[in-house]
Write a structure and sequence with these properties.
homodimer, about 110 residues, Arc Repressor Mutant, subunit A, 3 strands, DNA-binding
DNA sequence: GCGCTATATGTTGCTTGTCTACATGTAGCC
DNA sequence: GGCTACATGTAGACAAGCAACATATAGCGC
């Protein structure tokens, strides 16, 4: 999958993946990989800045905890994040049908 | 629709729109608007550079003609462009199912 | 102890594509 | 002359994803 095709859609993916359970960055990367059937292998240089961005925007909250001597920053979806996710899903439906429509298959 | 969601997908759209008939830039912008049900209102600063990029990549060929005293640069899909379009369509199917899958609707 | 892998977080700087704003010119209408 | 539609294009700003780098712990095999 080409690199910048993802542009503008990563935020939605991250929000979706922490929807039901808070996760730390590393686990988010793994979850995206699993959920995409191996298609998404996102580098840390992509994901970590995105997490900070989403937290700054108020869509995620984070807490430090320590598991087995390793520090983890666990991210959870905020109320605003939940709202944003719903919005993103609606936008995705539009986007997807617009592109699909113009692209056609004929 | 957010701007950079389009990032990386515009090329596919442009190639698709000139698939069956060569069009000039202005007409391409209008065609995209019509075909997207009004969702895509692309500024010239987006489309014209994209056309030049696609021509430089060998996916489009262009010819100047004059209609009613106005100069037009008409773009047509090259053989390589046709191939690229097929490739883009396949990539879109993957992309779309990956994002849709991760996003879920549950 | 040493090297390796997996886990875990983060930054710097590059690149590239989209957009805003600007710039230019013709045709047709009032 | 002024307005709108048609038509092409450029310069510069901005943002996001990425590669590469930097750091540190845990656990395993030797």
């Amino acid at each position: 999958m080409r690199a910048d095709a993802l542009r503008g859609h990563l935020d939605s993916l991250v929000l979706a993946v922490v929807e039901h359970e808070p996760l730390h960055g590393y686990a988010i990367i793994e979850a995206l990989q699993v959920r995409s059937g191996g298609e998404l292998e996102l580098p840390t240089g992509t994901v970590y800045p995105a997490l900070r961005r989403l937290e700054a925007a108020g869509y995620l909250t984070s807490d430090w905890d320590e598991v087995g001597g390793r520090r983890r920053r666990t991210y959870a979806l905020s109320r605003a994040g939940r709202k944003a996710l719903a919005q993103h899903r609606a936008e995705w439906r539009t986007f997807s049908s617009v592109i699909g429509g113009v692209l056609g298959e004929a």
